[in-house]
Design a protein that fits this description.
Helix 3 crosses helix 4, helix 4 packs across helix 11 and helix 13 crosses helix 23. This protein is 42% helix and 16% strand. Helix 8 links the parallel strand 7 and strand 8. Strands 12, 13, 14, 15, 16, 17, 22 and 23 form an eight-stranded mixed sheet that branches. Strands 3-2-1-4-5-10-11 form a seven-stranded mixed sheet, with helices on both faces. The chain contains 26 helices and 25 strands. The chain has four domains: 212 residues, Rossmann fold (3-Layer(aba) Sandwich), CATH 3.40.50.450; 124 residues, Rossmann fold (3-Layer(aba) Sandwich); 228 residues, 3-Layer(aba) Sandwich (Rossmann fold); 129 residues, Phosphofructokinase domain (Rossmann fold, 3-Layer(aba) Sandwich). The protein is α/β, with parallel strands linked by helices. It starts with 15 loop residues before the first strand and ends in an 11-residue tail after the last helix. Bound molecules: adenosine-5'-diphosphate. Adenosine-5'-diphosphate binds next to helix 4. This is ATP-dependent 6-phosphofructokinase.
Length: 772
């Protein structure tokens, strides 16, 4: 990002940008502060933090503090907010805001980036609206002179949403919500194990007063039996409905019961539904040994997950850009995320829409409350309902529209594969289709005479797969082309009428082979969808593969541990080798999430000048380090970044050049990167995309084989592209979007993020003309 030419408000002085965290704390807020501070400095501005939220603004003085580059070192891996947050009563009143305006002018700050919830953002916009009046009043009262306020005619406000509830409209995710969801899922997974052992029922209360995002997503990720959310209360006879569903699950052989209740859960008459009401029902009506667990503040704490670190970093950088591009006429923006795209939305409208949800709930207009949440929310709600209940007569298709759907895993295991399969199975059963597992990939199918290679999956088989890592039906890298003849014969023999593939680049290749082989084999003229699942995130047709988020979380955990291990000895740099094949995605995003000093990717390669610059940079960084950055430094190198400069060689070069002033260590996390339990993001997206994939397949029911083969959408990849989730025809993706040699997409969206990674780590760039 080139520095933007904006004149500073004070002649001869740099522009000053303030940043604060306000309202409830959320994991990731520190990442936002770090990004704002460093990006401001990189843009030739001065960065200030306001301590303790609006309280610091009202009090002024030392509560408004300039921050240097080094002051935010290590912020990414710290939980909570290091600059403090508070609820400030005096800012709610005009005199408080008058004091705040005076302090800002005195400090020379005319732009404020606020990371907080809807309350904090409302306050910020009010402050901006009143600003000219506040400044005039300060002059009138003689507290400031006309000359002093002259350069501060306008106040720039940019909002960043930091909230664990994910309650702001117009954004899919708020900073902190996925970390909080991670904590909830971890707890539910633990509880799940004990519930299973004792055949118990647990009622778990999670945060969310007007917003059921955490409760719903926890339900989707853990396969909970019932979920209560404020936006969509259950039917009037919910007691009967819940008991019926849970009894059914128990009758089918389920040993445990999990019910998730959002803090703000209500019935359709706005009466509160409490965990103890649910417990009494389960105990008295169903005779279950039931316990209540209230997760409480555990949900707020801890370090941020990889996604929140990335989100807060990218949004912090975008906020600075928004400040620099703002004019007095621009409405205050809030930085949002739609699927995979960072966008700016009018702050006031986002806040207004958020308040409307609460109003709609208050007016019992629940359809409206649901419609005011983003489209993603409604889809998750639908996916949850379909995948949780085994008996849904309303969804069942007529007999002649039911099909046999083959489900196959291809390639290495990735987090979320089982969740996707569970969703597909549940969807099939709800609709009356027959889900058939093809065990151990294409080689499994080709060895069809093995007993059990192809098996129908029951609801109970798949029921516990929501949170399981690995591949329950077995996965294999083998391709159909090894034996097309037998593969085709098996498709016909087992009457596979549609195929749902979950896997990475091999799965993608498999669909391509099957599609091309349709010419010779009629049994391949069936609808096929691939759901990309690989830690490498290198499948063309999507910007996100399930499993990649789990991998990033493992990787940052590994990096955090390495870095911390150096805190006693100091002056240590770790060269960590990541997976990813020929795609530098994992290395780059992990680099962004931990603040790596440098990231080496296959796309860019490694050359001697680059190493030279990076070693110089290391030397300078260690020389500057006066003890504030007690932990080690990290360089990430993708496994295929260079044939010559291996991880060990780079470490040796650094050792040689360091001349004893610092040391280098190598770390190879290897298969650790595949993670254990899949991350909630991988689980929920797997579920949502699994259901969507089956819905896509259903469009071809009743069509002839030739009609299917003639339709490019009959072999498709489901994925996220920018702000959309969509199906792309295989024919187009394989011919136009795929770099077959390097097994990755031709255009990798994250390449645009490289400059932000480098800017925020202060990495020196190649002089113009030298290339990377
Ligand atoms: P959150 O930002 O998490 O929604 P709050 O609603 O508690 O949290 O708001 C945090 C702080 O923002 C409040 O303590 C107050 O200082 C300020 N604030 C909230 N709403 C307003 C408002 N309408 N006008 C002025 N300031 C507000």
């Amino acid at each position: 990002m080139a520095p933007t030419e904006i004149p500073p408000p004070l002649p001869g002085k740099k522009r000053r940008i303030g940043v604060m965290t306000s309202g409830g704390d959320a994991p990731g807020m520190n990442g936002a502060v770090r990004a704002v501070v460093r990006m401001s400095i990189a843009q030739n501005c001065e960065a200030y933090v306001i301590l303790e939220g609006y309280e610091g603004l009202v009090q002024g003085g030392d509560m408004i503090k300039e921050m240097g580059w080094e002051d935010v070192r290590g912020f990414l891996s710290e939980g909570g907010t290091l600059i403090g947050t508070a609820r400030c009563k005096s800012f709610m009143e005009r005199p408080g805001r008058l004091a705040a305006a005076k302090n800002m002018v005195l400090k020379g700050i005319d732009a404020l980036i606020i990371c907080g919830g809807d309350g904090s953002l409302t306050g910020a916009d009010k402050f901006r609206g009143e600003w000219p009046g506040l400044v005039a009043e300060l002059v009138e009262k003689g507290e400031l002179t006309a000359e002093q306020v002259e350069p501060f005619k306008h106040l720039n406000i940019v909002g960043l949403v930091g909230s664990i509830d994910n309650d702001l409209s117009m954004t899919d995710a708020t900073i902190g919500c996925y970390s909080s969801l991670g904590r909830i899922c971890e707890s539910v997974d633990y509880i799940d194990a004990t519930a299973f052992s004792h055949q118990r029922a647990f009622v778990i209360e999670v945060m969310g007063r007007h917003c059921g995002w955490l409760a719903l997503m926890a339900g989707v990720s853990t396969g909970a039996d019932f979920v209560f959310i404020p936006e969509n209360p259950p039917s009037d006879d919910w007691e009967k409905e819940m008991c019926h569903i849970i009894k059914q699950h128990r009758d089918m052989g389920k040993r445990k019961t999990i019910v998730i209740v959002a803090e703000g859960a209500i019935d359709r008459n706005l009466n509160k539904i409490t965990p103890s009401m649910v417990k009494d029902l389960l105990t008295n009506q169903l005779g279950l040994d039931t316990r209540i667990t209230t997760l409480g503040h555990v949900q707020r704490g801890g370090t941020a997950c990889a996604y929140d670190r990335m989100l807060s970093t990218l949004q912090g950088a975008e906020a600075v850009k928004a400040v620099l591009e703002a004019t007095p006429e621009t409405p205050s923006p809030v930085i949002c995320m739609i699927e995979n795209k960072i966008v700016r939305r009018p702050l006031l409208e986002a806040v207004k829409q958020t308040h409307e949800v609460a109003e709609a709930i208050g007016a019992k207009d629940f359809d409206r409350a649901m419609s005011l949440r983003d489209a993603e929310f409604a889809e998750y709600y639908q996916a949850y309902n379909i995948t949780t209940s085994s008996d849904q007569p309303k969804l069942r298709l007529p007999e002649n529209q039911r099909i046999r759907v083959g489900i196959i895993h291809v390639g290495a295991p990735a987090g979320g594969m089982n969740a996707a399969t569970r969703a597909a199975v549940a969807y099939c059963l709800a609709r009356g289709h027959t889900p058939v597992a093809i065990h151990n990939g294409f080689p499994g199918l080709q060895r069809h005479h093995d007993e059990g290679a192809i098996k129908e999956i029951s609801w109970l088989d798949a029921e516990s797969w929501a949170s399981k890592g690995g591949s329950e039906i077995g996965t294999n890298r083998g391709l159909p082309s090894t034996d097309l003849e037998t593969t085709a014969m098996c498709f016909a023999k087992y009457n596979i009428q549609a195929l749902f593939l979950v896997g990475g680049f091999e799965a993608f290749t498999a669909v391509s082979e099957l599609r091309k082989a349709r010419e010779h084999y009629n049994s391949f003229k069936i609808p096929m969808v691939i759901l990309p699942a690989t830690v490498s995130n290198n499948v063309p047709g999507t910007e996100y593969s399930i499993g990649s988020d789990t991998c990033l979380n493992s990787l940052i955990q590994y990096c955090d541990a390495c870095r911390q291990s150096a805190s006693a000895s100091r002056r240590r740099v770790f060269i960590i080798e990541t997976q990813g094949g020929a795609s530098g995605y994992i290395a780059s995003i992990a680099g962004l999430s931990i603040g790596a000093l440098a990231v080496y990717t296959p796309e860019e390669g490694i050359n001697i000048k680059m190493l030279d610059r990076d070693i110089d940079h290391l030397r300078e960084t260690f020389a500057r380090d006066k003890g504030q950055g007690r932990a080690g430094k990290i360089i990430l190198r993708n496994e295929k970044a260079s044939k010559t400069y291996t991880t060990e060689i780079i470490a040796n070069m650094i050792r040689e050049e360091a001349k004893g002033r610092f040391e280098a260590r190598v770390g190879v996390p290897g298969h650790f990167q595949q993670g254990t339990t899949p991350s909630p993001m991988d689980r929920v997206r797997a579920t949502r995309f699994g259901v969507k994939s089956l819905q896509h397949i259903e469009q071809f029911i009743g069509k002839s084989k030739d009609e299917i083969a003639a339709d490019p959408m009959s072999a498709a990849v489901i994925g996220i592209k920018g702000a959309k989730v969509l199906f792309s025809p295989m024919e187009q993706v394989e011919s136009k979007e795929t770099d077959w040699k390097d097994r990755r997409p031709k255009d990798e969206f994250w390449m645009d993020l490289k400059s932000i990674i480098n800017t925020l780590s202060g990495r020196p760039q190649a002089p113009k003309g030298e290339g990377a």
